[in-house]
Amino acid sequence: MPKHALVIYNPTAKSQVQTETWIGKIVEELNKHDEYLVSFYPTTADTGPQHLVPLFKPPLDLVIAAGGDGTIRFALAALAKANSSIPCAILPLGTGNVLARNLGIVAESILANPLEHAFDYLRNGRPMQIDMGMMNGEYFAGMAGVGPISDAFMRPARALKTRFRLLAYVSAMLQTIAMPPRIFRITTGGMSFKVKASGVFLANVEDLGMGKENDMNVLCDGFLDLHIVDPVNFGDYVKLGFRFAGGSVDDNIPECILRVKEAVVEIVPRRGVRSEFQTTCNKIRNFLAGKKIADPPRIAELPTMLDGDECGKTPMRVTILPNAVTVLVPPERAEVTRLKEYEGLSSLIQQHDVEVEKSQSRMRDAS
Question: Distance between CA 303 and CA 150 in Å, rounded?
Fold first, then answer.
């Protein structure tokens, strides 16, 4: 009997290759060794994850999310909402492809061709359960964020991302340097505190996946990383770039990281004070614009970002949903993950044996 695959894609989104080209390639690859019946579900602006839920039932064997981070989030949200164990393969057709990079579907190099190994992976991928985050009732796979730096992920227009790809984000990020930081109130783990920051992120991924091979166990550990990002000078911004894009580790990076299962992030209606460097950048921005650009108003709401798309406003109420969906990962990455799981289990068994030996020794001494 043939297997069934459902391809979810956004026909209005621009990608690296023509739609008819990758559609034909998917059908070709899936039928090289197995017989597949392939159906296609083009989404529209009115399509919600709930519309896909009735489709996730037998005889469906595989879901393929073809697109950028927004399309991937949409497909995985539908699977999570359906509480479905049907595996989802990712065909990375977007600009950032953050989840695909963290899963090893796209090579870690910033210049990597996202489709170089994508079609082989469709046939040979191995299933793995990963966590999903939820913010204000909306699912996300990579990260949720708020603040000037978060806005940079949402700012580039689709045409700019299509033309300049990752450079479109670099331009948007440079513009955030001139913005004043904001004051946030964060509540998590039974404590509440205020911080000054240019960005607050809750991430299910280790970083943007562009500079090193990431530990996929981060995607299924039942925690989110709370990043409080507060760059002050030029060096801080450079370090942040290497941290998130390059995956570098530096104790002097201007961020605080907490491991959390849930958090509430609210905006305090007053602006933080610019650093000397940020003030200089703001003057340069005003000069280039030929006018003084007004700062954002002191409001109690800011736009929030989910996997690169604007989605609602603060306050952000975020939680982790462990093992929410099943995705396919490259076989070589799956083997590394299983080896780490085996090593972890072996370590627990060894610890257990040591404790048993200690207990038996104490019993012998007592007798």
Answer: 9
Report CA-CA distances (Å) from 204 to 133, 184, 321.
7, 21, 10
Going by their DSSP bridges, the two strands 3-9 and 309-313 should be labelled as unpaired
Residue 201's DSSP bridge partners are 145, 227
Domains by residue range for the chain, with CATH: 3-140+323-341 (3.40.50.10330), 143-320 (2.60.200.40)
Distance in angstroms (rounded) separating the CA atoms of residues 275 and 272: 9
Q: How many residues make up the chain in this entry?
A: 367
DSSP string, 138-189: EEESSEEEESHHHHHHH-S-HHHHHHHTHHHHHHHHHHHTTSPPEEEEEEET
The Cβ of residue 103 has, within 10 Å, a number of other Cβ atoms equal to: 27
**How large is the C-alpha radius of gyration of the chain?**
23
**DSSP-derived pairing of the beta strands 62-67 and 88-92:** parallel
Please tell me whether residue 301 adopts helix, strand or coil conformation: coil
**Amino acid symbol at 348:** L
Q: What is the pLDDT of residues 301-339, one digit of tens each?
A: 899 999 988 999 999 999 999 999 999 999 987 765 544
**Burial class (CB within 10 angstroms; exposed 0-12, middle 13-18, buried 19+) of 127:** middle
Q: Indicate the range of 66-70, 105-109, 131-135, 234-238 predicted with least confidence.
A: 105-109
Q: What is the pLDDT of residues 100-125, one digit of tens each?
A: 989 999 887 767 788 888 888 988 89
**What is the average pLDDT score of the chain?**
83
